[in-house]
Design brief:
The protein is an all-alpha fold. The chain contains eleven helices and no strands. It has one domain. About 25% of the residues are buried.
């Protein structure tokens, strides 16, 4: 029984992970309240989760705010751009549904296709920003390339993000899960998926940079881990 509660036992590791995800989710809720800071929060979350998935974790809160500060400018600009696109699409949906006008099907299909493309890019853009140093243009470009190059995994990541909220819609009990883990748990599952994708780019950074405009972000903490 004593070994069951050892810090290295599977039970304690599981409980520690649950605690980490709860703390991370609370940080996300707090940092997303101003709305404008949400992009930096998403980036910081993926910075921490990638380390957790790879057993490179250090101080969760300190690591979160380290990435939050380091990527604030780029993450905020990308986030504001995403918000602008969302507002435009909400306007498009309103016009399609309530304007009383009839729109050609090819136009509607094109709008839906672009929306799907943007969702695919969105699931990669903040993880890419958290892990790789690049311009905003190339970060968005690389996110799109990864989304198409790994389409089955991209779809799986989208499902991971949507599933808790679908469950919350149909179950009151699931709303508690959404409150406690709604940000962190789907992103944690996604990190398990994209970690392997990123690994393929990391060992040969110069080749990756020339082919896909990737440039590995090396900070002091990563240097210590990578030796």
């Amino acid at each position: 029984m004593g070994k069951l509660f050892d810090m290295d036992s599977p039970v304690m590791r599981f409980l520690n992970r649950v605690g980490d995800l709860m703390i991370l989710n609370l940080l996300m809720i707090i940092c997303c309240i101003p709305i404008i800071t949400a992009g930096a929060a998403f980036t910081a979350q993926h910075y921490v989760l990638l380390k957790i998935v790879r057993d490179e974790e250090g101080y969760l809160v300190r690591g979160f705010f380290k990435s939050f500060k380091a990527n604030f400018r780029q993450a905020t600009l990308i986030w504001l751009l995403m918000l602008l696109v969302v507002v435009i699409y909400i306007g498009d949906v309103w016009i399609f549904n309530y304007s009383g006008l009839t729109f050609p099907k090819p136009l509607i299909i094109a709008v839906v296709a672009v929306a799907i493309l943007l969702v695919m890019i969105a699931v990669y853009v903040f993880p890419v920003l958290a892990r790789f140093e690049n311009s905003i243009k190339n970060t968005l470009k690389n996110a799109m390339l990864l989304a198409f190059a790994n389409l089955p995994r991209t779809i799986l990541m989208i499902v991971c993000y949507i599933l808790p909220f679908v469950a919350g819609y149909f179950s009151t009990f699931a709303l508690l899960f959404v409150f406690l883990f709604g940000f962190s748990a789907p992103a944690y599952a996604a990190a398990w998926i994209y970690s392997g994708i990123f690994k393929k780019l990391e060992p040969e950074t110069e080749e990756a940079a020339s082919d896909l405009d990737f440039s590995l972000k090396i900070d002091e903490e990563t240097k210590e881990i990578d030796g």
